[in-house]
Fold Enoyl reductase (ER) domain-containing protein.
Amino acid sequence: MKELRLTKGSDNVVVGEFADVEKPTPKDDQVLIKVVVTGTNPKDWKYIGAGKQPRPFNSGDDIAGIVEAVGPKVLDFKPGDRVAAFHVMHDPHGSFAEYAIAPAHTTFIVPPNISFEEAATIPLVALTSAIGLYQELGLPTPWARGTDPHNPKGRNPIPIVIYGGTTSVGLTALKFARLSGLYPIITIAGGSRDIIEKDNLADVIIDYRNNPNIADEIRKALNGQELKHAFDGFAEPPTSDPIAEVLSTNGGKISGILPYGDGKLPNGHKWKMTYVGSAHKVYPPFPADDVEVDKEFAYVFSRYLTRALEQGKFKPHPHEVLKGGLGGIVEGLNRLREGKVKGSKLVARIGDTEGL
Ligand SMILES: NC(=O)c1ccc[n+]([C@@H]2O[C@H](COP(=O)([O-])OP(=O)(O)OC[C@H]3O[C@@H](n4cnc5c(N)ncnc54)[C@H](OP(=O)(O)O)[C@@H]3O)[C@@H](O)[C@H]2O)c1
């Protein structure tokens, strides 16, 4: 089979080459998937050409396709199933190929109402946001009972601030916050705010651009309520500083998707990094409080995704299909690297690749 391998050229530019490799065989709990559409993520360009990936590498992790074969311990899937999956980051047989491997516990059935293009936008960001909100911040899951005495059906009077509501991770966190019945949901976003407004995913949207009053605007939106939970889907200092100014010093928690400076925030708050790798294994130096527990969580949450998608409760991210299939990935990742992709996920159909 063919796979696309990526590395960095001069000026950090992503470059790629095709390689012929043997079609892998799924072991134990692994699923072999014929990739129909691959998704992309910023990490696909960030970590190539150095560290764990010094040589050209197939760095794709979002798989959407059809089960080709399963390992002997896989009970949930069979050949022919339509699935999406989060591949183990930095391992071989990623999604920029004709076939890819994923563990069964981060694979889920794609219901008939969802296309492969839509499905490819989901696995990595969904597990990132879910681990952030439910494992790191300990918020109630969408299937927990509501605690609002005036409206107990699925409502939780817990305010949350989500920074970066228009990043793929941030928008997905907003969707889960709504499904968990949290309110008010306050988010900080920029020019792509229409993707939040379209599905009414936040109660208050604060603009991050040239805004020195973010802390005051959060205070106003809270209307006297204590803020105990915040999630940062952008996490480049000082994004979380104004949130920490407002966060309760009595048990307030803040987590986000990158290491944040020295981890110290205003008012003595400590940063807690959310890392999606903990759905699979420990990736030093990233923290992993309890990988075994996060693996169980990822299994349960992946099953929930199928149900929420089928019921229309959870919608995929907006997407753009790259021209030329795998041949379009290099151009797409370079656009992502330059910050030119706004409010959208880039996906590629393997069948559009020239010569396949
Ligand atoms: N720790 C983990 O496990 C993990 C997992 C996934 C991703 N990540 C990291 O999370 C980050 C976001 O990834 P992603 O895929 O969600 O990104 P993305 O979808 O590519 O984000 C694009 C959006 O970023 C927004 N943005 C740009 N500058 C901003 C700022 N100063 N404040 C707030 N928003 C800003 C823009 O919003 P507007 O258009 O509204 O301006 C833009 O639409 C990346 O650094 C990625 O490497 C980490």
